[in-house]
Write a structure and sequence with these properties.
The chain has 287 residues and is an alpha/beta fold. It is built from ten helices and nine strands. The chain folds into two domains: 203 residues, TIM Barrel; 63 residues, no CATH class. The strands form two sheets. Strands 1-7-6-4-3-2 form a six-stranded parallel beta sheet. The chain starts with 6 loop residues before the first strand and ends with a helix. The structure holds flavin mononucleotide.
Length: 287
């Protein structure tokens, strides 16, 4: 089990990638991921943000993936048993030691320990209190001690030295998201790419404005004017649809003022190179 998930994992990143990125990462020996958060079971790529359902299980069953990773805990027991009956390894994200212990007690095979530095949505599911969130360097060793499961580190890892550091802390693998955003095979929108290449990378915050869920992104006009955690944001996932018209209008004018510009705290690692090349660079930290 452990050797199957050692190494470099490209984080699933809804909205900025498709299979091309995952295949490029795999071609260099990494584990590519396909995000399902914005897919519906019957019409791939139609936004849905449904919780994992039997209909999604049907869609997955046709190709029985070797690894499935969940965000926000685990699906209900009969669905989890169904996924495991395919021989699939089940991973899920923990953002605190308590969540890691919960995942171990409820049947996960491995834990993605997501430090607060990470870009995109936080996998927090036992608490909505962002003050519970822990940095990668503090989170990894504590989860390694608290559980028997293999731990995959995520959050702020952008180069070989970061990979080396998390292995030293006891992780078996590094899951990297932000650093892949400018790779040739990513589908990151142009307003997002421009922000990643600007000084905006110096300031990221946790915000609920764009989906209703806590997520880390670069500070833009919407965040500046409403504040990152404004009560006006509809609950997850409804805020996305509420913002869609103004976001589309702004993006049509080349503006990312109302777009979710997801990025982690270490966005300086983003390079305009192929994902295979980035994967090979990251993998130097494994030896
Ligand atoms: C643009 C973007 C989209 C993301 N979307 C997802 C997603 O759909 N599912 C998921 O499990 N994690 C998602 N994440 C979080 C990653 O799985 C991972 O925790 C994070 O990227 C690691 O930190 P890093 O960004 O500092 O490398 C996303 C991250 C980013 C940057």
């Amino acid at each position: 089990m452990m050797e199957k998930i050692e190494g470099i994992i490209q984080a699933p990143m809804a909205g900025v990638q498709d299979g091309e990125l995952a295949v490029a990462v795999a071609s260099a020996g990494g584990l590519g991921s396909l995000p399902c958060g914005m897919f519906s079971a019957d019409i791939p790529q139609k936004p849905s943000r449904q919780p994992f359902s039997h209909a999604m299980g049907d869609a997955l069953e046709s190709f029985k993936p070797r690894i499935v990773s969940f965000h926000y805990g685990l699906p209900e027991k009969n669905l989890l048993d169904r996924v495991k009956s395919w021989g699939t390894i089940v991973l899920s994200t923990a953002t605190t030691v308590a969540e890691a212990e919960w995942l171990e007690a409820h049947g996960a095979d491995g834990i993605i320990a997501q430090g607060v530095e990470a870009g995109g949505h936080r996998g927090m599911f036992l608490s909505k209190d962002v003050t519970t969130q822990v940095g990668t360097m503090a989170l990894i060793p504590q989860i390694v001690k608290a559980t028997q499961l293999p731990v995959i580190a995520a959050g702020g890892i952008a180069d070989a030295s970061g990979v080396r550091a998390v292995l030293e802390l006891g992780a078996v693998a590094a899951q990297v998201g932000t650093a892949y955003l400018l790779c040739h095979e990513a589908k990151t929108r142009s307003v997002h790419c421009q922000a990643l290449k600007s000084d905006m990378i110096r300031h990221t915050v946790l915000t609920t404005l764009f989906s209703g869920g806590e997520a880390r992104g670069m500070v833009n006009r919407l965040i500046r004017e409403l504040g990152p955690m404004a009560d006006v944001a509809p609950p997850y996932p409804l805020a996305s649809a509420a913002l869609a018209p103004i976001r589309a209008a702004a993006e049509a004018q080349g503006s990312g003022d109302f777009s979710p510009l997801w990025a982690g705290q270490n966005a300086r690692g983003c390079k305009e190179i192929s994902a295979a090349e980035l994967t090979r660079e990251l993998a130097l930290g494994l030896t």
